[in-house]
Design goal:
Rossmann fold; 9 helices; 29% helix; 26% strand; Quinone Oxidoreductase, Chain A, domain 1
């Protein structure tokens, strides 16, 4: 089969299309024919070496497709079932082995591409607004990179919870997408100081929580626009890693800082079923709109990474084997 591999860490150019043996499912596993694979920043971090992985690397954690065969001991699934997953290494491939307890059946009426687009990013948005800092009426949040894959879902979920939503974006095209998703105040960070704009719009109080996937370029300024006892939920670092800092920075407002990951919020089967079921249910009912910004053939994985890192995309980016 065809799959993407990298022999050494580095830039997008290390990703190559390779002929590799098709895997066989072991006990508790299923073999899936991949119909769409999601591209996420964690893939970039692994490819670059920021998050070390064994070499040769088999990138991709997320996707959706059709089950081809079952390993010993698998029950409740059948060949021909469509499934989606977020934690199966090697998903940039025509076929991938997925542990059965990490696979979620895709509801009738949801396309595989849509399912692949919301597993990791949809459940990330879900745990942020439901658990990390639960939103509700009267709460105010700031969403950075609001036109990205997680950002657009976050804005929609935050509005459904009744929160007031501030959103930062880089271009007018992205600003329009954030407004369409429901953002109350959209800030063009390339032209405006988001801290000053937030302070002005909240009469100096600030926001209750910041959902920050950008990291280095937004972190310290973000702390300045948190309300007393506000929370910084730093769940990504697309601009680079936040450098070391003194905890005394948080004393200015008795602030909270957390660095959450999906693996800790959907690591057990019950949590996975709840979050995935809720997200896919919102999609199926039309309450949650999924934007697939760009798709790339499997062979163009390197170009897809360049587009993502270069902020040339909105919504979700997918690879199509």
């Amino acid at each position: 089969m065809k799959a993407i591999r990298f022999e050494a860490t580095g830039g997008p150019e290390v990703l190559r299309l390779a002929d590799v043996p098709a895997p066989l499912p072991g006990p508790g596993e299923v073999l899936v024919r991949v119909e769409a694979a999601g591209i996420n920043f964690i893939d970039v971090y692994q490819r670059s070496g920021l998050y070390p992985v064994p070499l040769p690397g088999a990138p991709g954690l997320e996707g959706a497709g059709v089950i081809e065969s079952l390993g010993p001991g698998v029950s409740g699934l059948m060949p021909g079932d469509r499934g989606a997953w977020f934690n199966a290494p090697g998903s940039y491939a025509e076929k991938v082995v997925v542990p059965a307890d990490r696979l979620i059946k895709v509801p009738v009426g949801i396309e595989s591409r849509t399912a692949a687009a919301v597993m990791l990013q949809g459940m990330t948005a879900h745990y942020l607004v439901e658990t990390t800092y639960p939103l509700g009426p009267g709460k105010v949040c700031l969403v950075h990179a609001a036109a990205g894959g997680v950002g657009l879902l976050l804005v929609q979920m935050a509005k459904r919870k009744g929160a007031r939503v501030f959103a930062t974006v880089s271009t007018e095209e992205k600003a329009a997408l954030a407004r369409e998703a429901g953002a109350d105040v959209v800030i063009r960070y390339t032209e405006q100081d988001f801290t000053a704009e937030v302070k002005k719009a909240t009469e100096g109080r600030g926001v209750d929580v910041i959902y920050d996937s950008v990291g280095q370029s937004t972190f310290e300024k973000g702390l300045e626009c948190l309300a007393p006892r506000g929370m910084m939920a730093l769940f990504g670092q697309s601009s680079g890693v936040v450098p070391p800092f003194s905890p005394s920075l948080l004393a200015k407002g008795s602030l909270f800082l957390t660095r959450p990951t999906l693996f800790h919020y959907a690591g057990d089967r019950a949590s996975l079923e709840w979050r995935a079921g809720d997200v896919l249910g919102q999609v199926a009912s039309g309450q949650l709109s999924v934007r697939i910004g760009r798709t790339f053939p499997l062979a163009d994985a390197a170009e897809a990474h360049r587009a993502l890192v270069g902020r040339q995309t909105t919504g979700k980016v997918l690879l199509i084997p």
